[in-house]
């Protein structure tokens, strides 16, 4: 029998996979019974008994304390300064069973405790919990807390949320409670997601009026960071200039005059500080791409409209236009999409319709003075400009501008050349028209 055993493998491995977890469970039960505990953690009047070896094995802070001959390693009772008792108890229980319940009431105290005890996985879990529950009413407080706790990922997430939801955030109690320096820094940011600069003005004014007696003195500096030249002239005249806080402040009136001059005297625009005429752009929000009208494979004009969401990576159909349009001009003003002119398969069009993405509806607005397709379209100072195009007989040199406020098209100075299918862009307050053709020749020239 022995000889037969000797011929077999003389080494056998025995593994009990759940032994560590079962062992921790037994130690947790022993702790509940108050047995074999060799250390007590004290917070105020609260005391928690535990086993040094378990704390050292599960919590980096105690591992360093108990294995590096620190003074506390031989003490029977250790005072834990600045920790919430319920959070400490939960983290001690976590050391034994690996389970922790995070909720709205304990997340901050757990994050503070986890940071103190160097439990990075718990700290990360608390940050994720807060990140998923960001709201316009709490994001400023979460950002401040994240900065205090040096939670970079949570701080950045809160910042992005503030940028994306600035208008709603500006209506919160947290916003009204900000210090002047915090408000000034916020309204100076390029990344704010606003449909119009008017919304930033209203936010700043609401903050001042919340404690007018103490904050009125800060209004001139706040207005200097708001891009008043980007506000509509009507808003500057009827709202900003008429506000009693602005009217009684000489510096504020100067800033309003500067903004009005921007609209009245374009030649002075290069002298303005660059940031004042630079539209804000919330880079953390991906835009949507709209495909408007066009031609199908049979050459028929379409009224179909589709929108592409880069985040979802899919196209969806929108409400179709009321008129089929190819070679149509498109522009976006104040969050509304304009479809201008084009060709319906039989004739060139002067009609215009506007799409509201919130209601998924198209509405007809004022028609152009001329029928045109393949025109160049741009937006400048809240006005739509159409340049050239083709009216069915010849290329055009005429230029028209549309005011959404008055719903009227106005003919302005024509181009020096007749152009259709030209490229049109805006740069530093001027409209540049490049290339295109007049039906006989293709241009390589640029006009402005």
TrEMBL record:
Organism: Hymenochirus boettgeri (Congo dwarf clawed frog)
Pfam family, one: Kelch_KLHDC2_KLHL20_DRC7
PROSITE patterns reported for this sequence: BTB
Name this protein carries in UniProt: BTB domain-containing protein
Domain BTB: 37-104
InterPro entries: BACK, BTB/POZ_dom, Kelch-typ_b-propeller, Kelch_1, KLHL18_BTB/POZ, SKP1/BTB/POZ_sf
Taxon lineage: Eukaryota, Metazoa, Chordata, Craniata, Vertebrata
Keywords: Kelch repeat, Repeat
